[in-house]
């Protein structure tokens, strides 16, 4: 039973992307440079987002949870991006609608069971407006990493 990996280098602040594809590619490239995903992950996550939108409106800042198939993953990891300005993502379940996303949780998962488990925990976070504002406003990557680990504790 291995945990999902997250460290300070996977938390990106002050991203000012022009669009969602720039967000996805920046995050995926960072995961690739750190060795967590194969180079194929970069295109695959962008393509999957076009087919299956991952934007989620919340009572706080909107979020997105982009991910793709396990064959593009070397080691499961989570990357977090806090955007300087909101970027439009298609809404999960209805890509014709969009939501202005401020926080992106990119998943690199090596099994479907662990992906489902992480998604369930993330949904709990997304329902807590106070937690979302914490992620949006905290500038210390170590504190963000520790908070994320605490919230995901007990996951495989």
Task: Fill in the keyword field for this structure.
globular, PTS sugar transporter subunit IIA, PTS_SugarTrans_NitroReg, PTrfase/Anion_transptr, 5 strands, 5-stranded mixed β-sheet, 156 residues, alpha/beta, Mannitol-specific EII, Chain A, transport
Overview of the molecule:
The chain is of the alpha/beta class. It has one domain: 3-Layer(aba) Sandwich (Mannitol-specific EII, Chain A). Helices cover 40% and strands 26% of the residues. The protein contains 5 helices and 5 strands. The protein has helices at residues 20-33, 40-51, 112-126, 129-137, 141-152, and strands at residues 11-15, 55-56, 62-64, 77-91, 94-108. It has a 5-stranded mixed sheet, with helices on both faces. Helix 1 packs antiparallel against helix 2 (40-51). It is globular, with a radius of gyration of 14 Å. The model has no long low-confidence stretch (mean pLDDT 92).
How many structural units, i.e. domains? Answer: 1
* Biggest sheet descriptor: 5 strands, mixed
Number of strands: 5
Radius of gyration over alpha carbons?
14 Å
The best one-word shape is: globular
- How many individual helices? 5
Q: What is the level 1 CATH name?
A: Alpha Beta
Spatial order of the strands forming the largest sheet: 1-4-5-3-2
* CATH architecture descriptor: 3-Layer(aba) Sandwich
End-to-end C-alpha gap: 5 Å
What is the helical fraction, as a range of percent?
25-40%
Q: List SSEs in N-to-C order.
A: EHHEEEEHHH
The CATH superfamily label reads: Mannitol-specific EII, Chain A
Question: Roughly what fraction of the amino acids lie in strands?
Answer: 25-35%
Remind me, CATH topology? Answer: Mannitol-specific EII, Chain A
